[in-house]
Specification:
The protein is an alpha+beta fold. It has one domain: Coenzyme PQQ synthesis protein D (PqqD) (Arc Repressor Mutant, subunit A, Orthogonal Bundle). 48% of the residues lie in helices and 25% in strands. It contains 3 helices and 5 strands. The strands form 2 sheets. A 3-stranded antiparallel β-sheet has the order 2-3-4. Helix 2 crosses helix 3. The longest helix has 17 residues.
Length: 83
């Protein structure tokens, strides 16, 4: 997975702001969404993301994997990430 060329990201105190320069839409995520986006920027695959998020947030792997899949599918449908 990768961010699309037209997506800009900015980390804020309250979370992460995404700006789609093609549609001029703004998306806001919380801390966990920001962590997922950072892992996407680093080129991590799903299993790597889940592993790192389990360590960071001390969560159950199956639940985190489900949440990551839902979040990334939404980002794909909004044309924020590809792959």
């Amino acid at each position: 997975m990768n961010l699309t060329e037209h997506t800009k990201i900015r980390k804020e105190k309250f979370g992460t702001v995404l700006f789609d320069t093609l549609t001029e839409k703004i998306f806001v995520t919380d801390e966990i969404g920001g962590e997922i986006l950072q892992l996407v920027e680093q080129g991590k695959d799903l299993s790597q993301m889940v592993s790192e998020l389990c360590e960071t947030f001390d969560g159950e792997g199956q639940i985190i994997e489900k949440d990551v899949l839902e979040f990334t599918e939404q980002l794909k449908s909004d044309n924020i990430i590809s792959g």
